[in-house]
């Protein structure tokens, strides 16, 4: 009886805490359809909610003796359930919501973001879940929602930490959460134009104009469109066009600058209030659009830097509302500022960049670290190289502004897109409604001018704004163009196709070429593979990607030169020289043969990391363990202790009989390769051969994962684990790093192709992990890369590096070369918070460190989530913010000293004649530097020296002087 009681109790607790099973996306779709067709939408009924907690019928208000109460709808039961099971909140009524629950800090402010996304969906989909419920009177009371909004911001803005860490999100939320009677008319205009074009396709050109280059003259264009198409418009469309015109007239109505400070203003009595009064006085009668934008941008920045000095939350709220109005002034007037010369376009870019920082699209530290603030004097000149550097920084500002929007909202958009595809347009809509839109246009104008002066011109089909393209890795390719506008993770890539992605996939299989909107970072595994293998790789803008969609599915030629200019043309436009680049050669040409003559398979005992060094790479173990052992000798205090499971132990286990095969694992593997070669000799297609191999490898891989480990090996592993790491197997968390003989070869890096297991603790999981790591070279992705570039991919031998976990505060990659500028003496570093982010392709904080002193900030981190490594094992996802840089000056100086030491001592210690750069993985814990890996930085010399790539690479005179008075 007692046992039954406990079962019932646990069941009730699970219901109370929402531990019931998640509702599928398919089921959510069904619910949304039903809400769209319901006159009450997601709501069940309307009630009075009285102060004492009681509920009363709609026509029975709360009596005066218990307070006035609030009247609004109750959610349908399944809506409430969806919040508990999936943390998805539909049709949120603010007056029905606790402030802390709505802020939802534990879930990265998901509820607030969902509220914003819900409002967007209602605007672009005729009310969305409230399609018929829009007319359900009393479900939401606007005055109650607005009063709630004011109280919410009073609570939220009383905390300095909230404002400092979430400035962008809080400021964006003001555009959606009612608190002062205003609305987001700019977003409404874009939504209405989308709805019209979806129903009436001939409006599409105007919709694109309104979304891409909105300006006051669009009003007349919409009026003209309506007049020309009156006979084709039904009553509903005619009304929608009238509403659009009305809203455009209201939006483009000049803002009365003198009304920024109301008579009841609390701000007017503050120090920043006096500056706003001066701004109002200066700008109220100003007729110069350039001076208006300059002064408004400076005022935006003043407000942002003053917010934390003001402690009254209502003053902060008023300042943020003024900030929104100032951004609107810039957004409306930016198209009217038409620079005539270089100096003026530089000035426009500078002040729009300042405005972006003031509006929160970039952080203040990022603005301080980027060189756009040089005072440009009249009748002076600037070297082309310096001008190009400003262009690169300006492009970065555009990318960072867009990535700020994505970083804050992508997680919620991804969740909603799975059941409501229209949600994917939210981020694009947010970017197009921001200063970044006009900043990008100005940067494009400067890019076009510099391209003309340097002859560094992109030739990308017939799309506009081509200066947004920039090459990352040189190379050329021919194949079908595939444009992926959504998430890349579910896309099955092919090695003979060229892919355009929003962001690079985390586990990229071989492709012919790649370009991405979010490049991740230049030292991620994906970028290193592309660089190593001569795969052309470029970055582009969101707008560029959208324009390329119409070419998806067509055969194209794609090339990136050594200087980064990009060519993309249809097959029909290829020259004879370009066609000749793809004449088929023998199958084995240009492939690499892995030397195996020195592999020591007779050593089948666990090794101490201290006992191996660089000379053992490819003999006893892979380069990770060998090189880390070398680093342990050189920097004993910066490298953890560790164990190495050499090739021989793996090979010894592979001689065991494989279940259900009447042969050993090793024989099964080699028989597969022999049969594959016989199939080729019989002219069976390579596609069929590959399918056979992958099917066989799947059988082998699953068998290895279940392979029994020999008792003598487990016994030695336990003994050495205790002796070397100081604790019993299963008592401390460790990393298990795959380390094969087919990595870090002279011409093939193999970066990130095999398995690393993070922070494993339990003995059984470590044992299973060893087998999983042994099986990982036989995964489809790993095998395809080896098969494509290696002559003898069958001779792969995995060793395993076992090292204790270090719960680093931040970690990253050091390349002892300036990648962005090609200078061998400089350094490139990329860091993310927590463990492993930079090498996995996160948008990392990146610097170019000059050999002669100084640094150049290349990119900020834009990752909301990062990994920490708890003592109990596994990984824990924590939420980050962007207001402070990851690395401090002490970290950078220590990295500089480490690189110098590696360059000077590593060749001597290893008796190597290697002259190239190194790729080093490292991290900091409490400002202590830890080293985790070193490998050669492998570049594709063929791509860099290709005659064709040289022919399309212009010679640029970076010392050429450009007059700033020169006309654009």
TrEMBL record:
Claim: Transmembrane is one of the keywords in the record: no
EC number: 2.7.9.2
UniProt key word Chaperone: no
Catalytic activity as recorded in UniProt: pyruvate + ATP + H2O = phosphoenolpyruvate + AMP + phosphate + 2 H(+)
Residue stretches making up the Pyruvate phosphate dikinase AMP/ATP-binding domain: 620-943
Superkingdom field: Bacteria
Pfam families named among the record's database cross-references: PPDK_N
InterPro entries: ATP_grasp_subdomain_1, PEP_synth, PPDK_AMP/ATP-bd
SUPFAM superfamilies in alphabetical order: Glutathione synthetase ATP-binding domain-like
Cofactors required: Mg(2+)
Pathway it works in: Carbohydrate biosynthesis; gluconeogenesis
Alphabetical keyword list: ATP-binding, Kinase, Magnesium, Metal-binding, Nucleotide-binding, Transferase
Family to which this protein belongs: Belongs to the PEP-utilizing enzyme family.
Role of this protein: Catalyzes the phosphorylation of pyruvate to phosphoenolpyruvate.
Identification of the protein by name: Phosphoenolpyruvate synthase
Annotated source species: Gaetbulibacter aquiaggeris
